Amino acid sequence: MNTKAAMIEKEGLIVIFRGVPFEKIEKTVMALYNGGARIIEIAFNPSDENTIEETTKLIKEARRVIGDKMLIGAGTVVCEEYVVAAYNAGVDFIFSPDTDLDVIRLTKKLGLVSIPGALTPSECKTAYKNGADIIKLFPATIDKVDYIINITRPLSHIPFICVGGTNENTIEAFIKAGAKGVGTGISILKPELIKNGDYKEIERLTKLHVEKIKEARKNM
């Protein structure tokens, strides 16, 4: 397995940046790092015509701040143009909401970790067969835990990360259902915390999520 993909599985927490302004990237990244997070994802916004310029600017700033101490990915990568822009900005992985084979293949061609979104068994298998390193089960809400179990058991050779309804209260259920980890933004990077610059609380919430993953794994 790709060493960066293996690190994502090992760490188990991807923190998703959405709506974090440029001037707050540095302190936000450091709060996450101090809280124990080692993987972040900065999302494109397909409804914004300037999203390539704006998102790559954020990615480059995050890299400037943290260097190689964290893996940095691009999220909501819905087209090949975003893959190329993210690659040129220096990301380690590509995080998508869907199974787009062209995106997966280009991601792998460029030497990046591929984490496409999928939900059905056929989507999961197709994405993995075409080069995906990890499958993002999305949307993975807490009411779908039984469904997730029924996906991960017959496809136990595929590593899954759950995204969509993940927070400190649901992590254990997703891990026990077979997920290698979770992706979350809103349960750590709460809009009011970003607005008020409450980086200590962001650090505390990060530590809480990291501990919840460790506890869930111990209890399996």
Draw up the topology in text.
Blueprint: H1 3-11, E1 13-17, H2 25-34, E2 39-43, H3 51-66, E3 71-75, H4 80-89, E4 93-95, H5 101-109, E5 113-115, E6 117-118, H6 121-129, E7 135-140, H7 145-152, E8 160-164, H8 171-176, E9 181-184, H9 191-196, H10 199-218
Parallel strand pairs: 1-2, 1-9, 2-3, 3-4, 4-5, 6-7, 7-8, 8-9
Structure explained in plain terms:
- This protein is of the alpha/beta class.
- The chain contains 10 helices and 9 strands.
- Helix 6 links the parallel strand 6 and strand 7 (135-140).
- The chain is globular.
- The two termini are 23 Å apart.
Major beta-sheet overview: 9 strands, parallel
Rg to the nearest angstrom?
A: 16 Å
Average predicted local confidence, pLDDT: 97
Enumerate the strands of the largest sheet in spatial order, edge to edge or round the barrel.
5-4-3-2-1-9-8-7-6
* Coarse morphology: globular
Which class do the helix and strand fractions yield?
alpha/beta
The first-to-last residue Cα distance is 23 Å
**Low-confidence residue ranges:** none
Proportion of β residues? 15-25%
Q: Give the ordered list of helices and strands.
A: HEHEHEHEHEEHEHEHEHH
Number of helices: 10
The share of residues in helices is 40-55%
Find the count of extended strands (DSSP E, 2+ residues). Answer: 9
